Amino acid sequence: MSVILILILASLSVAVAFLISFIWAVRSGQYEDTCTPALRILPDDAAEKNSASGSKPKSSNS
Amino acid sequence: MVTVCFHCGEPCAGDAFAQDGKPFCCLGCQTVFHLLQENGLGQFYELNAAPGTRIRATTVAARYAFLDDPVVREKLLDYADDQRARVTLRLPAIHCVACVWLLENLFKLHPGIGRSVVNFTRREATITFAPDRIKLGELAALLASIGYEPELTCAETEAPRPSLVRKKQWLQIGLAAFAFGNIMLMSVPVYLGLDRFNGPWFRVLAGWLSLAMALPVVTYSASDFWRSAWWSLRQRRLTLDVPIALGLAAIYGQSFFEVLAHRGPGYCDSLTGLILFLLCGRVFQQKTHERLIFDRDYKGFFPLAVIRKTPAGEESVPISRLQPGDRLVLRHGELLPADAKLVGGDAWLDYSFVTGEAEPVRCAPGSHLYAGGRQIGGRIEVETVRPVVQSRLAALWDNEAFRKRRDDDLDSLTNRYSRRFTKLVIGLALAAAVFWLFHDAAKALPVFTAVLIVACPCALALAAPLTHGTAQRVLARLNLFLKNARVIERLAQVDTIVLDKTGTLTTADASGVAFISAEGGVRKADLSVEERQWIGSLARHSTHPNSIRIAKSLAVAPRPVSGFQEISGGGIAGEVAGHEIRLGSMAWLEKCGVSGRNRSNPEGSPSAATTLPVGSHTGIAIDGVWRGGFQLENALRPEVEKLVARLGSRFELALLSGDNEREAARFRALFGERATLRFNRSPADKLEFIRELQHGGRRVMMVGDGLNDAGALRQADVGVAVVESLGAFSPASDVILDALQLPRLAEVLAFSRQAARVVRLGFVISALYNLAGLSIAAAGLLAPMVCAVLMPLSSATVLAFACGMTAWSGRRIFALSKPLGASTSPARLREPAVKWIEGA
Amino acid sequence: MNTNVETFKYDNRIVRAFAMATIVWGVVGMSVGLLAAVQLFFPDANLNLPFITFGRIRPLHTNAVIFAFVGNGMFTGIYYSLQRLCKARMFSDFLSWFNFWGWQLIIVSAALTLPLGFTTSKEYAELEWPIDIAITVVWVAFAVNLFGTLVKRREQHMYVAIWFYIATVVTIAVLHIVNSMEMPWSALKSYSMYAGVQDALVQWWYGHNAVAFFLTTPYLGLMYYFLPKAANRPVFSYRLSIIHFWALIFLYIWAGPHHLLYTALPDWAQSLGMLFSLMLIAPSWGGMLNGLLTLRGAWDKVRQDPMLKFMVVAVTAYGMATLEGPALSIKSVNSLSHYTDWTIAHAHTGALGWNGFLTFSMLYWLFPQLYRTKLWSVKLANYHFWISLLGMMFYIVPIYVAGVTEGLMWKQFTKDGFLQYPNFLETIVQVVPMFRLRALGGTLYILGTLLMAYNLYRTAKSGQFEPETVAQAAPLASHAPASGKIKFHRLLEGKPLFFTVLSIVAILVGGIVEIIPMYLIKENVPTIASVKPYTPLEVMGRDIYIREGCLGCHSQMIRPFRSETERYGEYSKSGEYVYDHPFLWASERKGPDLAREGGRYPDGWHFNHMDDPRSTSPGSIMPRYSWLLTQPLDTNSLPARLKALRKVGVPYPDGYENGPAQKDLAAQASRVVQNLKQGAVTAESDREIIALIAYLQRLGTDIKPAPAPAPATSTFE
Q1: C-alpha atoms less than 13 angstroms from C-alpha of B692 in its C-beta half-sphere
Q2: Does the beta-carbon distance from B192 to C715 stay under 8 Å?
C-alpha cells in the first residue's frame, strides 16, 4: 500500500502550502477588516463612464 | 407627499434648489451633487437612495488650518515622507456602500490624493496623499465639504490602533484547525482499521506525523493556557487553566509514549481538537464593537484645537499648547477647553454635560467659566486662567478610582467553580493511581494520566465563554453594548442602581415642547396648520438648541424663508409666506415692539408671558402680534416611570443630579419615599456616594450620560453610559446603552441573571461528561477512540446548550428582538447598510 | 491629472469567449448525456455504431459536462471577477488566450478520442496521456496568469472568492498529476502506473477531491462574488465566509481518503463515521446558509429576478448534495446505495442544480454587463427557470426511485434464504420506466438551456459589446508601508518558535528512522500465489473491454455481503487485483458484476450475447457489439503492450513479448475457437471477440472459491 504514502504526502504538502498562505494572509493584515471588503465589491467600475452624464437609472444589478 | 433632497433625503423647502430636474434642500447639497457630477462620481447616487448627509454650514478651510500645525500633524499622520503621507480619519458620516465607494474614489476629486481605504465598522478612512499638493487641513476641509466631517478630538489622536492580539488569535486557531484536520486524515484510517491493510509502518508514520503536527499547536496555539496556568500557580490561585494545562501536558506525553511503543497514533487528534475548541470559545467571547470606545476621558470630549486671538489676528491652536492668559474665541456650539474668565460677548454656557445643570447659564462679563461648558448663541471672548489639565473637570481624573485596573476575572463564576474542580480531579487521579499501585502497578501511571486526560475541562471551559458571547450578541441587537463578557456576570450581581437625572432620565428633545397661547392656558386657541408651518420653517434655519427642538416638535413641510436673521441672545426673525415671524426671548420680542391685543391682557404687553410656568420658554410674534410662547422643559424619557417602578421593586434605587432642586418634588413622587435623592452633586460627590454604597457591601450599577458621571461610572461595579447616538462621545463605562433602550434596563438585568444560571447548568452538563470519562479512565479502559468521541461530543452538547438556551431566554425576556422605535444614531439612519453590518 | 492613480482596462473579450464556449459545450455535453440516457431503455439508439454506444459516450458526457461546461463556466466567472476584485487586468493576455484555446483544443480532442475508444477507464480522468499532458500545460498557464494577476493587484485585500480560486488551481494540479501517472505503449494509449487496490485508492482520492475542488470550490468563489452582485447587497457575513474557506481547506481535505474506506468500516465505528460526516457537513452548510441569508430581506427581488431564482436553487442544491454526500458514506447507506443509480442521482443533484443553475445565473447577469444593456427577455428567462427546474425534478426523482429499487431488489431474500431476484435482468427491467422519465427530464433541461442560449443571443444583439472596461485605482505600492507590520520572531515569539522547529525536525527524523526498515519489509498486501498475470490474448481482450467502456455498466468487485456472494460468488480479495493496470472495479451496475464471470457461461454463449444480447437474455438493455465479431485483432501492438506492463511491474519474463507471446496468443485463440465450435459457432481466431471471450472467461478464476468468513479486506468507493 505504498500508494497511501504518496496520497498522504500529496495531501499534506497541499495542506502545508495553505497553512503558510494562511499565516501570510493573517500577518499581512488581510483580515484586519472583515466587513468593508464585502461592501467594496458591490459598485461596478463599469458604471463610471455613463455616470458622467448624470445618474441615469441603471438595471437593478449594476 | 413632501419632495425630498436628492442628495441627503431631507425634506426640501419648495424647489428653490434644483439641478438636472433633481430637488435639493439647500445650496450645500446642490453644490456637492454638482461637484460629484463634474468629477464623474455620479454613480454615488445609484448605489443608494439619497446617500448624502446634509451639509449644514459651508466649510471654511481655515477651520482645519490647525491640522497643518506640526505638532497636530505629527500626531495624526500614520506615516509620512517628503512626497507621501498617510492619515486615518474618523468619519462618523459613513453609513452605506455609496460612502465607501465615494471615499475610496476620493482621488477623482483632488489630484493630490492617492489611495484611500475605508474601514466601515470603525467609520474610518485611511487616505494617502501628496503633502506637497494637498495639505492635511485642505484634505479635511475637502472631506467636510462633501459631508464627511472628520471627528477630531484629543482622544482621536490617542485612539488605539488595531493590536496584534487579534492576529495572534487567528493564527493560533488556524494552526490548530490545520493540525486537527490533517491529524484526523491519518487517525481516521487507523480507527477504521485501514492500517491492518497498510502494513505496520503506516500506524507508525501516522503516529509520528501526528506528533509533529500537534507540537506547534501545543507550544504556540495553546501558549496562553500555559502562561496563565503558570501565572495562577504563582498567585496560588487555582484558575481553570491549571487543569487544562495539566490535561494538555498529560495528553501529549501519553501520545508520545504510545507512538514510541507502537501502540497507535495516540491522542493528538483529540488534543488538537480540544485546543481548537477552547480557542474558538475564547474568540467567540471577545465580541468587539469596533465603533465604540469604552474608556475615554474628558479629552475625548474636547476639540483638538481652539481659536486663539493674538495681536496678529486669530489663529487656531491645539489645546495641548494653550497657556494661561491666552485669549480664546468661542463661537456658537463651541466648547470651552479650560477654566477661563469671560472677557467679551454675552455668554450662555450649557454645562449640562459636565455638571448636569439642565439650563444654560447666563454669565456676566468677568465671571469665571468652567472647562466643558458649551457656548450657545453669539461669539464670546475668554481668557484662560488655568492650563487644560488643571481645570476643575480634569481634576476628577486624578481620583484613584481611575488608576486601579479592574476586569481581572479571578472571581469569575468559572474560576470559583474550578477551584473545587481542580482539587477534585487531582485527588481522583492520585486516588486511582494509588488504587492501581496495589492491584496492578503497571497500570498506575497510565491510569493517572488517563484521568488527567479525560478530566481536562474542555466543555467546562467553554460553558461561560459561549454563554457570554451569545448574551453579548443578543444585547448588541438591542443596541446595548458591553465592554467585555465579564460585565454580564457583574450585571447579574447588581443590587443597587444609581441613576443620573439630566440626560439620563430626562431628555431635551421634541417631546418636552409645549405651546402656550397668548390667551393664557395651554391648548386653547392652538396654532393653526399654517402658523405651525411658518414657525417651523423659520426655526429650521437656526442652530440654537431651542429652535431645533421647536422645529422638531412642529415637524412640518418647510416653506422658503426670506430675510432670515439671528440675533444672538435674542432670537430669530424672518418672512415666511408673506408673514413676518419672530421667535425669541420675551425681552427681545418686547424690544422689537411686539404688540398684543387679546382678552387676557388688554393693554397687550407680552408681559402676560410672565404668567407662564417655570422652565425656559420662547415667545412667538406673527406680524408683530404677540401670539404666545413655547415652553421647553426636559421631559422624562418615555416609559421612565414604568422603569423606575419595576427597578424599585427589586433594587435599591438612588438619584444623583448635578442640577438644582427645582424638580425635587417631581422625582420624589417618581421614586417614592425609600429612594435616596441628591441634588447639586459635583462629579466628585457622585463618585464618593458610590464608594460609600460599596463600603456598605452593595453591588452598585451607575447609569449616567455625562462627564459629570464619569467618576461614578468608573467607581461603580457596572457603569452604564446612556448615549443619544452610537457615534457620540460617551464617558468611560462598562456598558454603552442607546438612550431609546433605557426602558429595557430591567429586562437586561433579568437577562444577565438568566445567563449566569445558564453558565452554571453548563458546568453541570460538562461535569457529567467528565464523570463518564473519569469512570472509564479510572477503570483503565481509556482508548484514543473514546477520547475522540467523548471530547467533541461533550463540547458540542455544551455549545448547543449554552448558545441555544441563552438565545432562547433572550428572545423570551425581550419579547421583540429589534430596538424600540428608531433612534437618531447614524448607524440606524440608513437601514440597509446597517442590517448588513449587524449581520457580520 | 492625478499621478497617484493608474488607469487600466479590464479584458472583457476573454470573458465573452469563455461564456460562449460554456453555452456551446453545455448544450453538447447535455445532449450527449441524453443520447446515453436514451440507450438505457432503447439500446438500438446507438444505430449499431461503436462511436455512439453507451460505453463510449458515457465518459464523453461526464467529461464534456465537467470539464467543458463547468470548466468553461468557471473560467468565465474567474476571468471576469478576478480582474475586478484585483483592480487589475489579467497578468498576460497571451496566457489568457492560451488558456482559452488550449482548453477548447483539449475538449475537442476529448470529443474525438473518447468515442474512438481511447480511454484510461478511470472516471473523470478517462483522457489519455497526451491530453493529460496538454491539460497540465494549460492548467499551469492558467495558474501563472492567476497568480501573476494577484501579484500586480491594486486592491490590498484579497476577497474570499479569490481564495477559493487559488484552492482550485493548486489542488486540481496536484490531483491531476498524481492520478495521471501512466505508462504509454502507443501514441494514444497507456497503462496506469498503479495496480488494483492502489489504483482504486488513488483514483477515488482524485475522484472525491476533483468533485470537491473542480465542481465545488471554484463555484463557491463564484457564488461569493455573483450572489452579492445580483442581490446588490453584501454577503450575509463576510467573516463567516472567511471561516467557511479555511474550515473547508483544513478540515475537508481529509475527506478524500475516508471516502474510500467506509465499506471497510467495522460496524462498531459507524457512530464515529456519522460524527466525522457531521463535521464535514458543517463547513459546507455554513457556506450555504451564508449564501441564502444574504438574500434575507430581498425575497421580493428573488420573485422578480430570474437570476436570483437560479442562484437560490443552486445554493439549495449545494446544501442538499453536501448533506447527502456524507450520508452516502455511512456504511449502512452505502451498502444499499453503492453501484445503484442513487449515486447518479446524487451526482446530478450537484451537476444540474448546483453547477448548472449557478452557471445559468452567472451568464444571465454577465451578458447584460458585457453588452451594456438589459436582458432581452426576463419572461423567457423565467420560462427557462421553471422548465429546467421541472426537468431537474423529472430527472432526479425517478433516478432516486430507481436507485433505491435496485438496491433493495439486489438485497432481497426469500424467507427460505434464497435471492428473491436471482436473475439480475429482473431488477433492471423493473427500473426501465424510470430511465424513460429521466430522459424526459433531461430533454426539458436541455430545452431550457436552449431558451437561455437564444435569450442571451438576443441580448447580445440588442446591446453594444464593450471589449474593455476602463477603471482607475491607486497602485498598491503607494500604500506602503502596509498597515500592521510584524517581525517574524514576534509572530511565533522567539524561543518557543526555535524550540518548536527543532523538536519537529527531531520528531520527523525519529519517525523516518523508524519507518524506513518497516517500509522495506515486503508489503503485506495479501498476495495470492495462484494469482497470475494475464495471458497475451487476455491482455488484448482486457484492452477491448476498456475500449468499449464495459465498466460503464459492469463492476468487477464483489463486496463481502451475503446478497452479493450469493449472486456472484466468493467476495473479491485485494490480492486478486495485483496485476490490474488499471483497476476495473467500476462504480455502477446496469448489468451484473463480472468479477467471477469466468467459466459461468460457455464461450458460445458469450459470442451470441455480444452479437445480440437479447438473443441470449430477452429484455436485456445491453447494446449489440456485433462489430467485435468482424473487426480483426491488432496483434502487432502486443509487444508494446507487454513491455509497458512489465515496466509497471507485471512479471512477464524478459523477451517474452518478442516471440513466445505471439505463439501463446495464437494457441489460446485457437482453443477458444475450438470451444466455440462445440457451441455450434464458427469464428475466425483473429477477431476481437475471441480476445474478449478469453478475458471474460479468465475473470475471477485465479482463486478457487474457498468458504471463508467475510472480513472486510477490500477497499473501494
Answers
A1: 8
A2: no
